[in-house]
Each structure stands twice: as structure tokens, then as C-alpha cells.
Design brief:
heterodimer; A: alpha/beta; D-Maltodextrin-Binding Protein, domain 2; 2 domains; 3-stranded antiparallel sheet; globular; B: mainly alpha; two-stranded antiparallel ribbon; 17 helices; 2 strands; disordered C terminus
Chain lengths: 474, 326
Amino acid sequence: MQKISRTRMAGTAVFAVAMTMAACAAPTAPPAQIVVQTAVVTSVVEKVVNKEVNKEVVVTATPAPVKSTTDEKAAITVWIDDTRKPLVEAYKKKYPEKAALIKEEVVDRGTFPAKVLLFNNTGKGWPDVVFAEPNLVAQVADASRDFPLDLTDLVPAGIKDQFAPGALAPCTFAGKLLCLRNDIAQNMIWFNKPLFDQFKYKVPTTWAEYEQLGMDLAKDHPGYIIGAVDEATLVYVFLWGSRCPLGQARDATTIYINLNDPKCTRAITMVDNLIKVGALAKVGNFDPAVAKVAADNKIMMMIGPSWFGEYVFGGKPESTYYKKAEGQLDTAVPLKWDGEDKNYTGFWGGSAWSVSRHTVNPKLAVDFAIFASTGVEYHGTGPTYPAYAPAATEWRKTVKGNALYAQDPYPVMEKAAAVMDPLITSVRYDLTSPFKDLAVPAITKGQTVASVVPGLQKALVGLAEAQGYTVVTK
Amino acid sequence: MWGGRLYTNNRPLQPNAVTVSKLDQPLSTPLTGAYRKRSGLSLRAAHLFLLPYVILMVLFGILPGAYALVISFAKFVGGRPQYFLAGISNYVTAYSDFRFLTSIGNILSFLLISIPVGVVGVLFISLWLHVKPGRVATAFRTLFFIPGAFAGPALVLLAFFMFAPTTSPFGFLLSAMGFQNSAEVTLKDNYPVLFTVLGFFAGAGGWVAIFYGALDGISSEVMEAAIMDGCNKLESAYYVKLPLIRPYIAYMVILTVAGNVQLFAEPQLFGAKYWSPNQLGYAFAFEIGNFGASAAISLLMVFVGLIAATIIIKFSGFYQTDATAS
């Protein structure tokens, strides 16, 4: 009798654990994963398996069942965010005969790569056109997702040529154009003109002058800042601005990572020096502490993307930094490192439009993607710097009207757009996450970024290898 | 089941409660007498009561678990499974990943803090409330239970404010400890402690209610005998009550180990990407598209939970009450 009771209790406990565990293992077991495949499809997949043994990850290598028939009357699904709703409206207004064929859905694009995997499993459900950043496009272009349509021959050369120089580089993977840029977020200098006039400082043109400015400022006017440091600025502003090879894709499978390169160490040393004297805030641009510095009017300058003017400095009561538009904000071209042939800059954001390989109406889908990335009707008054030059010229009129700027910021934006570093490529993983994991805590604890470089290198290499890249360090 | 919870919401199941709360009666009564003489196929009331649980467990526990086992040996091409083609390569990929050992270390440090703190804390509160049962004790029990009513992620978001010196009602405490901003509080080094605090307030109330019930179930004759023998309150708590509720403690340890090994929501919402093994499993599935390696990590957690349960059942005197009572 006792034995039975014991068995029961043991069973109960083990069952309870098993249930707890198995229930929570659920994320690994997506629903409806078993796909009934036809014999033809299976043989295609088999072939690819053999190919895959030799090459671990090949971009766009795995043909999923693609419908061979196209239908120009089929409706297309377009994934957008809330901000892009007026763009769809603009398209429908311009082409009323196609309005009924565009089904827009507001989607959190962070889930885009995960959803593509699930659609691949079920063999249906893919959206036709997607609004997402090039690094997300890179993720869905990997062997397991193989989502985007190669646009190289589908977009006329006359249109491709009119994108800002380098704007399409993050959309180009192993020579294939997989997306069209919506906007670009080239980094540039934003500075407070009255403060520079008052303190009689010169706006820097090189990184050496920038560091000197920080040192002088810390000595003469403590509390004023020339930047903010978190994982985003470390990668997008300082390391990309210094041409640091923290993840440069050489081709679809090889990536170059070397944080010990002098181009990295020079930027890291500078950041550490400026943090030490207090000229750089130890938190990111959107931390309440930096907003407080802005409210005290102690931001001398920031290096940030083209959307900082409208969205961060703002000049409106609800803006993060400047609540009033008083002509206080001025702009300057990106800084140059001594020894480089010219100045180069990174970027912070900037999205793109990609088209599904599975679409049954590629004509309409490509058509829509072209309008979405180039249409002057929308981008002329859109929220961010258009990647397409003719639209950018139109957009100039919109920003010019903002009383926040000391002068028209457009010429500087245009120059900055032209010096985006072509060495910056999109990779299939999040470059900033190791910096968030290691560099940001080090800064918080009062240690240097240099002290965590070995850990950062290891993490960046590990992430790349986990994604199937072959890593080279020279 | 909420993976990130420090204490799971599982309540002790009925056989266990019966066993402990009626110490003075013969155990396993339902198995004797009339019930025993019936044919093995006849439907008993107990089976009916168990049925919903069994169905749900099969649907959401056993089947997904078995599926995980199957896909852990599947090769994934184009995000689609090719069954039984991977051999053990998914296990190799998962367990040799550069983040794997770190995440195991992280979860171990969390278990080492959260389990003792959880068990001792809950025991202390329960015994303390049981010293003088009545309205006050009931009010406190309810109070402790309230945070558990929040859904996990909402609780984590609430914790953000609690851990920020500028916004927290306990900001003065954090400031006194030398913290100036939330970044300093939420450093990764502090995660095990932070998640323990968070989990304790989320889950302790439920366990207090259970332990309190167990304590109430102790026969009044036993307690009277203890008092007659000259036990004071402290002694009766330590020498009499505590040993009598030991199976509950073992049960709590089993469930909290199982639950805490699967920590997910807390580090995810705190912004750490691959902090716990469960997060790494998620990354394998949805960042890399290798559902097989992801399943390999999930199964490891099942395994850890089962091993822990087996050890605890075997060595903790989980059934001591059976022995003493029969």
C-alpha cells in the first residue's frame, strides 16, 4: 500500500516537472511545422541538402516551393509601420485602379525574420512587400529564410542611379540588390550655435579637434557635453565613423572582424578619454539624464543621424531636447580622421523596402516598392531624409521651414549622405548587442571600453559564426 | 506555465495534500476497501477529476515535449525540418555554442541565490504567520498573495520602476546603497539578486498560502502534546511543525528549480539577449532558424528538472510522513 502511494507521489512530481518544462519548451516547437510536400519539391530540397554540406550558409540558396505562375491581378500584402500609412494612401491616390490590390498591414518588423521562418514551415503566408531595415533584410536573406526577391534586374538602372551614393550598399548582398532604401540616416554634426559663439570655440572638422574640444570644454566649462555613449553611438557613430572593421561582410559567407585594428583602437581610446573627463555622457542619447542636460542647455554638440534634427532636438514642446525653435541648432559635415583620405561617416537607422520571392504578382510588388522608396508625392514631405535624390531635393523645402535651424541644414545633410562609408555592410546579427552586454556595463562601472575589447571581439566573432559566417581577422 | 516565474503557480496536487494534512489517519485510504475490490477498468471519480489535467498535460506538455525530442534530431534546411537526418549534430551545435556555458553559469548563480532565499523566506513567513492564526495572519497572507496576481511581463515592467532610484518608492533605500541611476542597479552582475527579489514577491504569496494550509493541517493533538511537553513557540516551529511539512518543502524546491531553470521574461525584458539557456534556445530558433538546436537546449532543461526532482525525492525524505504514519 505504501509502495503504491510512493509511486503515485513520485509520478505526480515528475509529471508536474515534465509538464512545466515541456510547456515552456513550446517556443521551440512552432505550430503546423509538418508540411506535406510534393515529390517534386522534395527532390529539389534534397539537391540543396547536398549542396549545403559543402557550403554552410549560402545567401538565397534554398529554393522553397515557388509558385511558377504569376497573376498581375492578384492582391499584394504590404507590411508597414504606423508612420508609413500615408505612403500607402499616396500610392492609392496616384494609382486608383490598383488601390484595391494593396492590402496593407501594420506589423512589428522586429518579428519579421521569425515570422518568415514560420511561413517557410507552413509553405504559405508570406507578405509581398516589407518595410524593414537592411539588417533585417540581411537576416531574411540567409539560407534558412531565403525571402527577398533579387531586384537587380527588376529596377531600372535610371532609378538605381539616382539614389544617394552608397545608399543602396546596405541593400546589396553578394552583388544582388535585395531592397530599395526608404530613407537614409547619415551621421553628421549637430551643434548649438549660440553656445559655440559664447564660448568662442571652433566647430571641429577632424576627430582630433573633436577630442581637443572635449578636453577644453571639460576644463573650462564642466557639465557641458559633446556626445553620449551607449551601444548605439559606440557602433553607429564612433566605430563606424572610424572605419573600424567590427563586422564587414567580404562576401555572403565571409566576414572581417578585428576590434584590435588601429582604426578601432583610435576611436575607443578617444571615447574612453572623453568619458573620463566628462565631455561624453555615460548614458545614451535617449536617457533622461541627457534630456536633463539638454534642458539645462548644456549640449554643445552631438554626432547623430539626419533624423536627430526633426526628432530629437525637435524644437517642439514635446521634443526630447529643445522645447522651443529658436534658430539655435546648426549642422556641420562629418569629422575626418588624420591619415584617412577624406571624411567618412556611419549611419543610424534608415529603412528599406524588400519584395518577397514568393509573390504571385511580382510586377505590382516591385512597382509598389519603387514608388515607396522613390515617390516624391510621399517623400517630399515625409518624416526622414529620402534615400532617393530627387525626393530629397523636394524634402529640403520641408526642413528648411523649421525655425529650429540656424541655417538650412540640407546642404550638410547632402554632403554627409555622400560620405557614408561603403565598407559598412549589413550583417545577419545585431552588431550592437555585445556592446550592450559588455561595453555599457563597463562604462557604468567606471571602467574603460578598451578593457572589454577582448570580450567584445570574442562575442562578435561568436555571433557571426553562429550565423554561419566564416570569420577572418585580417 | 510562465517560464520566468520564480515560483510557479502550480499548487500541490491532491494526493500529496491528503497525505500530509491527515497525519493521524491511515494513508492512501482510497486504495483500500471498496475501491480495491472493483474491476481495474471501472471509471473512478478520481479518474474523472484527473481527466482535464491529463488532457491538457498531453496536449501542452507531453506532445510538445515529444515533438521537441523529434525535431532535436531533425536537420533544418530552408527553415523546414528533415526528420532524423541530423544525428546528434544539433546537440553539438547547441552545447558548443560560445554563449552556452555563460548562460548555464548565469542560471546556476540565479538558482543558488533564488532557491535558498525563496524556501527560507517562504518558510519563515509561513511559520511566523502561523504562530498566531487569526484575522491579522489572514490579512497578511492575502497581502503577500497580491503581487502574484500580476502577469509575469507586467511585473517585470513594474520592477523597472521599482529598481530605478529616481522613480522607485524605495528609491531612498537604493540611494543609501550607493546607486545613482537605474543603469547601475540593473547591471548584469546584479541580475541573480534582482530576479530573486522580483520572483520572491511574485511567487512567495502562493507558497505561503500552501505552507500555511499545510501547517493548519497538522493535527491539534500533536501540537497540544508538544505544548504539554514544554515546547515554546520557537521550538514547536522548528522541532514539530517544520519536520511535518517537509514534503511540501521538497515539492516547492522541485517546482521552483524547474521553473527557475527556464527563466526567460526577466532577462529578455531587462535587455540581456542570451543571459539564460531559455533565451539562447529562443535565439537558436528565431534568430538562426535552427529549431533542432533550440529543441536540444529545451530538452536539457527538462532533463535538469527531472534530475533535480529525482534527487530531491530520493534523498530529501519526501515520503517520511508515509513511513511515520504507517
